From TrEMBL:
Lineage: superkingdom: Bacteria
DUF6472 domain location: 5-60
Source organism phylogeny: Bacteria, Bacillati, Bacillota, Clostridia, Lachnospirales
Record InterPro entries: DUF6472
One Pfam family, short name: DUF6472
Protein known as: DUF6472 family protein
Length: 60
């Protein structure tokens, strides 16, 4: 089974208040967007693991 990318953990996946849903902030081309929408976006080249505690570590 091929391991996929989980967008929920990506830095580029954030809540858009205008659309009231989560969106990818990366400017995807037409083919990439089609794969993203259908859920077939495996091994995303733009994936960056989000680290919500990064700011806290800098304050210490």
């Amino acid at each position: 089974m091929e391991k996929g990318t989980n967008c929920e953990y990506c830095v580029n996946y954030s809540y858009d208040e205008d659309y009231e849903c989560y969106t990818c902030e990366v400017n995807l081309d037409e083919d990439e967007m089609a794969h993203f929408i259908t859920g077939n976006f495996r091994q995303c080249p733009y994936f960056k693991m989000g680290d919500e505690y990064r700011v806290v570590r800098k304050q210490m």
